[in-house]
Design brief:
single chain; 160 residues; alpha/beta; Rossmann fold; 5-stranded parallel β-sheet; two-stranded antiparallel ribbon; 5 helices; 7 strands; CAP12/PCTIR_TIR_dom; Nucleotide-binding protein, TIR-like protein; NADP+ nucleosidase activity
């Protein structure tokens, strides 16, 4: 995707964390980012535990990441019939907005996953059913933009 860049080494340092629940749809996102965009992806469950708590593992394993894609899938049915994403996924939206900045977090929300009260201010990319592929062009454009900002920040750091 970025093979013509003068900043090829910096592109190789750019990593994306994919947050997900139990649905396997996240694997399609991971595959798209790895194969089509040629960017390294970090998946928490693939990392060794080393006796760490989940939050310690999340914090440490994302230290070298620069962007997060959050996959909110319909998984937890509530008593009133509404469907929520896994609560760890909801938590990780705020966690990564704080860690990477709102501009470096992309939320993919499966319809009809319930919006939580604070999501009204969060821009997300909806998809229907299992058609997560419908988000791929948005993923591409958002990551291209994030990568450009990442490279610009590095250039500014070099000038100082």
């Amino acid at each position: 995707m970025f093979e013509e860049s003068d900043d090829e080494e910096m592109v190789e340092e750019f990593k994306i964390f994919v947050s997900h629940g139990r649905s396997s749809l996240w694997q399609e996102v991971e595959r798209f980012v790895r194969t089509q965009l040629e960017i390294d992806v970090v998946i928490l469950k693939d990392q060794v535990n080393r006796g760490r708590t989940i939050i310690e593992k999340l914090d440490e394993e994302t230290d070298e990441c620069h962007y997060a894609i959050i996959v909110m899938t319909a998984e937890d049915e509530q008593a009133d019939g509404s469907i929520r994403a896994r609560q760890n996924v909801v938590h990780e939206i705020g966690y990564f907005q704080g860690k990477f900045g709102r501009e470096n977090v992309l939320v993919l929300r499966q319809e009809p996953v319930e919006e939580f009260s604070n999501i009204a201010g969060i821009v997300y990319e909806p998809f229907v059913g299992n058609n997560i592929q419908s988000t791929f062009e948005r993923i591409r454009s958002e990551i291209e933009d994030a990568l450009e900002r990442f490279l610009e920040e590095d250039d500014e750091d070099d000038e100082e």
